[in-house]
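Much of our argument rests on the idea that a fold can be written as discrete symbols. Part of our work consisted of pairing the sequence of a single chain with a tokenised description of its backbone. We regard such an encoding as a compact summary of how the chain folds. The amino acid sequence and the backbone structure tokens for this protein are reproduced below.
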Amino acid sequence: MICLLSGVALGADLALPASLQADVVDLDWLESGRRRTGLFFAVWSMTTKLSLALAVGIAFPILELAGLRSGGANSAVALGTFAALYGLVAVAIKLAATALVWNFSITEALQDETRRKLEGRAAAAAARGAS
């Protein structure tokens, strides 16, 4: 069931973060006048890599303490710990992430307004360049 539900949510896991980040980049560009897209994506990439490293750094020692061994017979405690880390902790983290973005402050209306202003700025710059 966990694999089925996480598979269904995979599309959102892959598309939603980049979409939210693009909205933040647009708003930052409008407010600061600077294009810092590369900086935003670099920080996002570094954060993603650090979170993966942290997950391994926490989960593997816990699994070792529980006695989980690859390729061998494992106790019920070891397998239960593995299942809890793989399923329950992952679901809890996804629910926490959902709560964080549930009321994302960049609404559709704000994003539409931001895009209109950025397009107006680009058209004005193009007109200045053509003259």
Observations:
- The helical segments are 2-8, 10-32, 37-66, 76-102, 108-130.
- Residues 58 and 108 are 38 Å apart (CA to CA).
- The mean pLDDT is 90.
- The longest helix spans residues 37-66.
